[in-house]
Amino acid sequence: MNFPVEFIEQSRRLLGENNYMFFEKALQENPPVSVRMNPEKSFFVPENSEVVPWCSTGYYVDKRPAFTFDPLLHAGCYYVQEAASMFVEQVFRQYVNSPVIVLDLCAAPGGKSTLVSSLLSENDLLVSNEVIRNRSQILAENLVKWGSPNVIVTNNAPADFISTGVMFDVILADVPCSGEGMFRKDPSAVDEWSIANVQKCQKRQRAILQDIWPCLKPDGLLVYSTCTYNCEENENNVAWIASELGAEVLALEVKREWNIVGNLAGYDFPVYRFLPHCTMGEGFFLAVLRKKAEENSIDSLESLPEKKRNKSGYRIKKSDVVSPNAFHAWIKNAESYAWTVENGRVSAFPLRYETVYETLKKRLKVLHAGVVLGEMKGKDFQPSHSLAMSSAFLRENFPHGELTYRQAVDYLRKETVVLPPQMSRGYVLVTYRNTPLGFVKNVGNRANNLYPQEWRVRSTYLPDAPVSL
Fold it and tell me: Which of 96, 175, 298, 440 satisfies CB 3.0 to 4.6 Å to 205 for a cystine?
């Protein structure tokens, strides 16, 4: 791989000649493969794996299988994530106490959001946002598959959040950057790199931070991160946040054997750099900042009125004839959710944050929230894929049909699946290795596939042997 001359010169100044030689050598090597398991769905450790030391559920695996053809990936049992970015876990372990409302501002495709959702408790809320529309759809898909009910997915610009009045305890800003840390993973990033683009990225990053800063509570945390190496987008931006926005840079406890590199720009505040010749992973930079309590900010949600509901406790439009009572048995702790019926669609959202959700819905484009249980289709109430994927799902309320590997791949391609003749008619939960994949409607000689059309696996390739970790 040939690097731009200006990138080489920049990196030599940053690292020194000796370190640069090791750095360049590492960039010519294949990156490690790492995954993170879903603690709500996964009960196994990948074979021949090593633990990612800064993440309790992260593993380096010794191969890169064709992940697309592993049904357990589509079931949300694990997420393929770069190991260095899993370091975000340390921020939550060391500084975040429940209950909190967290915003992942630039969240697609969903690596950090799925990580954070696994770290939060049932008393917390995650708002996961992506401004680019097609990327926001991928984000929503990954979070639905991950299955946490305490999540809202939005598709908005950072400045849009100010008008909502919602303030956050933690904001993750994994800002768009020049992508130097992805060079060996994505060679096209090398061709797109330039000093001018670095400067453009720095300007855009500061604009994003300025837009979202009013939405961070006093004493709230900003987790700033990039996947690049240069100081302009890293230490210089942290210094700017501290001086211009009024923030305190916080330190994390890290183990020496992790080989995480500190500040390379001469500032006296702590930052955390992952360099490929020092740690097993790609380039990653992270800093933790606390908003000073005296900072002026917009009003909080405490003054917002409670959402009015009818006497039964549900928000139902007059045109709807579906009663949520019939579906309480489908999810755990049904009494802890606010139930909504609208146009025949039944949804459940954590009652604790109903006001927050309704407030965001008025101002933002919400793609997904809580658990969608299903909707009326003609005379039938059809269960939703969101229900099948949810960690709150009580699966014993549906008949099960266990699929073979070949059948599971066919199901993910949205092809016809044939169930055993003794299987009951109607809606059936199909599973693979006893893990929910979704629903079918069994009509006897065939089962109508209810897997979301837009999520289907489009490749016709079928591996010779089942793909798994």
Answer: 175
